[in-house]
Amino acid sequence: MSSLEARGLRYRYPTTGRTTVGDRAAAIDDVSMSLAPGRLVALTGPSGSGKTTLLWLLAKLLEPEVGTVRLGDTAVTDLSTAQRVGIALVPQGNGLAASLTARENVPLPLLARTRRRRAQAAAGERSDTALDAVGLRESGGHLIEELSGGQQQRVAIARGLALAPAVLLADEPTSELDHGNRERVLHLLRGVAERGATVLMATHDPEAAALADAQIALDEGRRV
Ligand SMILES: Nc1ncnc2c1ncn2[C@@H]1O[C@H](COP(=O)(O)OP(=O)(O)OP(=O)(O)O)[C@@H](O)[C@H]1O
């Protein structure tokens, strides 16, 4: 697997009301980083420092004003390239479809990639394995809206795991979890890194950050 490289990323949210772009502070300002495969890295910083924005830029869900993202030799210029090279985001607030079951949600990104029947069957198996890994195999038939916040968060993590990504970006993946499940999820993220992926985890949790191989700290959109 390859290193994820960001160079000089800058992003300002679009204007609302009477503010103009020039008046707005950049949510991410001149951020560069190099994340080696096999590493679990914590992205830290106070609320509003730009962690979510940076993850969205790396996943190409936001387009930077300036700056580049590369995975190895590939310039990651748009969302479809990001998906093709295996950059996956587990978003804050889980991003699941509330009226589908956990077992229906987990394979959705995998199913979106293929029409081949054998790949679709494999997606089901991978999803069950991922639900098992987060301790939710028994709850697979429940609608997302019937699950607790912590269970929903684990379903979202299972969806990221099922993709077997080259880069896993996880936004506050343990914020809603009890102690046991937090340990379980951190162990799983470590396992993803040990299989050769790059894992970047935004977190407010000092204990989770301390378990990471390295920390990238943000303040007011800049690295500190
Ligand atoms: N949709 C938006 N429109 C305008 N400004 C936004 C939007 N989302 C975030 N911001 C602003 O961008 C900055 C960075 O926000 P971001 O959500 O990336 O921070 P964060 O470090 O992830 O915060 P938290 O730890 O609270 O999740 C903040 O000043 C925030 O107010």
UniProtKB/TrEMBL annotation:
InterPro entries: AAA+_ATPase (IPR003593), ABC_transporter-like_ATP-bd (IPR003439), ABC_transporter-like_CS (IPR017871), ABC_transpr_LolD-like (IPR015854), P-loop_NTPase (IPR027417). Residues 11-224 form the ABC transporter domain. SUPFAM superfamilies: P-loop containing nucleoside triphosphate hydrolases. Keywords: ATP-binding, Nucleotide-binding. The keyword Chloroplast does not apply. Signal peptide: none annotated. The keyword Nucleotide-binding applies. One of its GO terms (molecular function) is ATP binding. It comes from the Bacteria. Belongs to the ABC transporter superfamily. This is ABC transporter ATP-binding protein. It comes from Arsenicicoccus piscis.
